[in-house]
């Protein structure tokens, strides 16, 4: 009877333990979300106050009434919309080119045998290890020889393909693209580009979504290379324009924070849209498996 009594309560104990574990996991995730969102909230607080509010102690923890005023000051002091347009063009076109060339090269590296494949891939990885700062001078000289210094082409073309994207897509393609699908396509008479377009790309969507988000954010936030190559002060990108808000002896940090807030909102929108597709495609792939 004792054994029967203890066994009847065993599922209840296991269920309660499992419930406590789920609650603990959810509370931990909720704490992570709060910690992750707090810097953005603090940016809103600083952008909606004054410089004196930023230096106040104890600090203010609620947004102030000066957000619109500070945003108008940003638009008045710099060519915000012109630099925003330049940044959007560079980020969108650069991301599309990176997705195309990196996925195409990764498809070839992952699924095709050709002479020197391993050597070329090793050289590609070696270039990824070189600090980008070392290439600033030769890259600027090259852009000047082409006559592209000061134009948006100098920001788009040099970054149209990169080692990280090719490596990432190649690793994904190696496991996600079965050789049987390619063999079936070859039997139907499909060539390289048809296999890439009709077989590889649909399976690459989760990896492309991640690479697209990563590349767009990187291009949007790039500061050093646009500062060097954009010799025309009227055609700078947003990050370079926002740097002009920092005046040597009288910097209005609330306006600077408002400019930073205005520049980060498009990134949040792109991340939310791209991550939704990324998670949806991953879930669809897991369901098929």
Description:
This protein has 289 residues and is mainly α. Helix content is 77%, strand content 0%. The chain is built from 13 helices and no strands. It has helices spanning 2-47, 51-55, 67-77, 80-111, 117-128, 136-146, 153-156, 163-176, 179-187, 192-221, 224-229, 238-243, 253-288. Helix 4 runs antiparallel to helix 10. The protein starts with a helix and ends with a helix. Residues 6-14 and 285-289 have low confidence and may be disordered.
The major β-sheet equals: none
Low-confidence stretches: 6-14, 285-289
Rounded to an integer in angstroms, the radius of gyration calculated over CA atoms is 26 Å
* Mean pLDDT across every amino acid position: 84
General shape: globular
Helix content: over 70%
Number of helices: 13
User: What order do the helices and strands follow?
Assistant: HHHHHHHHHHHHH
Oligomer: single chain
Strand content: under 5%
Cα-to-Cα separation, first versus last residue: 46 Å
According to DSSP, the number of beta strands is: 0
Q: What class, by secondary structure content?
A: mainly alpha
Topology at a glance:
Blueprint: H1 2-47, H2 51-55, H3 67-77, H4 80-111, H5 117-128, H6 136-146, H7 153-156, H8 163-176, H9 179-187, H10 192-221, H11 224-229, H12 238-243, H13 253-288
Helix pairs in contact: 1-13, 3-13, 4-8, 4-10, 8-10, 10-13
């Amino acid at each position: 009877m004792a054994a029967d009594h203890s066994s009847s309560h065993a599922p209840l104990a296991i269920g309660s333990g499992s419930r406590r574990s789920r609650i603990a996991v959810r509370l931990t995730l909720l704490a992570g979300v709060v910690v992750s969102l707090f810097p953005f909230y603090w940016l809103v607080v600083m952008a909606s106050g004054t410089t004196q509010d930023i230096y106040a102690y104890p600090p203010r923890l609620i947004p102030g009434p000066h957000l619109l005023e500070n945003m108008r000051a940003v638009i008045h002091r710099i060519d915000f919309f012109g630099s925003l347009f330049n940044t959007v063009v560079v980020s969108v076109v650069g991301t599309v080119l990176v997705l195309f060339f990196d996925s195409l090269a990764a498809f070839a590296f992952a699924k095709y045998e050709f002479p020197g494949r391993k050597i070329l891939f090793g050289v590609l990885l070696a270039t990824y290890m070189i600090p980008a700062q070392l290439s600033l001078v030769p890259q600027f000289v090259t852009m000047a020889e082409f006559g592209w210094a000061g134009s948006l082409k100098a920001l788009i073309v040099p970054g149209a393909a990169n080692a990280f994207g090719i490596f990432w897509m190649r690793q994904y393609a190696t496991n996600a693209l079965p050789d049987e699908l390619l063999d079936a396509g070859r039997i139907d008479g499909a060539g390289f580009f048809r296999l890439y377009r009709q077989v590889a790309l649909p399976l690459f969507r989760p990896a492309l979504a991640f690479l697209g988000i990563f590349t767009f954010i990187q291009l949007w936030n790039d500061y050093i290379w646009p500062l060097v190559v954009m010799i025309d002060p009227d055609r700078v990108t947003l990050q370079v324009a926002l740097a002009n808000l920092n005046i040597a002896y009288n910097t209005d940090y609330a306006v600077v924070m408002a400019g930073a807030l205005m520049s980060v909102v498009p990134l949040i929108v792109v991340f939310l849209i791209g991550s939704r597709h990324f998670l949806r495609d991953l879930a669809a792939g897991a369901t098929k498996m």
